[in-house]
Amino acid sequence: MLPENTAPRPSRRTLIRGTLGFAALATAGPLAACGSDDTPATSETPAQSPGSGGASGGRLRLGAAGAATPTLNVLTATGMVDYIAMFSLYDSLAVLRGDQIELQLAESFEANADATEFTVGIRSDATFHDGRPCTAHDVRYSLATLADPDQSPNFSQFYSDLDVANLDVIDEHTLRIALHRPRADFVTTSLATFSMIFPADTAGEQWEEGIGSGPLRLASSSGGSYVLERNPDYWGEPAFLDEVELIAINDAETRLNALRGGEIDYAHSISPAGAAVIERDDSLAVVRGGPANSQTFALEMNVNQAPFDDPGVRLAMKLLVDREALVETVLFGQGVVGNDLMGQGLVGFNTDIPQRERDLDEARSLLETAGVSEVTLRVAELAPGMTDAATLFAEQAAEAGLTITLETADADTFFADYETLMSTPFQSVLWINRPAATFTSIFTGSAGSFNVTGMGGPEYDALLDELHSSLDEETRQVHLDEIQRELWDRGGNLLWGFAEQLDATVPGVEGITYVQSLPRLGQLRMT
To answer: Global pTM?
Structure first.
């Protein structure tokens, strides 16, 4: 059940796959703009950091997955190509790069004493692509629109604690944000997660003009593909490239073949099998996103649904899985073993918790005690190999005397079918690796927007409330460590592996950095 001071969530939401990799920081007092200690992408040829010299200009062709209905509508877009474009057309108040908050349109955030209010200072030198200044009125309109579940099915869950009626414009460059309850992590879990700013009153066909304040502006669009050009009036460091052509190519193998055939210069999101092939090809380079830009392969058990309402059954499932075999077989060794906790390799992760090891005897004993001999696992091919992973897991479970029947679901509607997502006892899910603090706020607790495991209750919710209300970083980490231990002991997450974002390029593509697993086009260059 939801706390009384939390806005109710809509019955259906869509989770944007592949765009939500971010890091958690405590937000104590004023947070001012500072240089980001960004973690660059890694490749076989080291990427050159922006600003370190080298040629400027040129045109880059990038292939990425599109959508059945392409759009530049920030509120409803689902295609990867659309989001790669939008993250360069629009600035956000802040973004998370690696484990650092990078301020964009915001110059500062200041929380009040109990973290129920934030004052945002907005930079005064930013203008939209059509020449209009970007003001606090635009920021107010953008946040209010993002928080509206009727208009913003993709992102309203991140703003459930925003008190829209009390978004107060103090002056042209200052906005006061009120919340329904204390949220010391509001900048991290909401504003730095997704806060693209667009002109006030943007609606309807205006979205397709892509009017933002970002380093690139829309030159043309056709059939879900876009050409972006350098914005000469950008307030920050100008883009290196003259143009970037974004081409919608839905199939990962087709994207890789287009790269190998010279049709594109950059293939976004290739499969682990494709990466293994590229590593043997000296004419191309694999680009790795690192822990902050990685996918999490999960088997999710709903703790409120039989037989997973029995903690012994949940533990048995975690003990019978052979994680190493799944990583080696399904991910072609292009990944790392998981430990049933999100945020592995990121800030805030509790490294004192031991790695869970396979124990077939204990798993068999727990299942026999619970009288469980068969379960059904819902699976969709959300990423290449997920069905194979479920099949291999079923074979592993059989060694403990458990029969797993696979139920195939449609990948295109998997996340859109919110009711089924939230009520299925056992399902295979693909997430983006999120820092522990962010994951627990959104994916656990009675108010968790995507709490597919149902992990919550008065005692657990009280732990989350302590985490959310504390402005002291050390105190927050103590609470976060306790929550992670509770999730490891009793939670419904079986996170068996992590696979970092894998892209591929031709030689000479440099300056590759990511925000939420998406390449920053303004940073790219070709030599």
So the answer is: 0.82
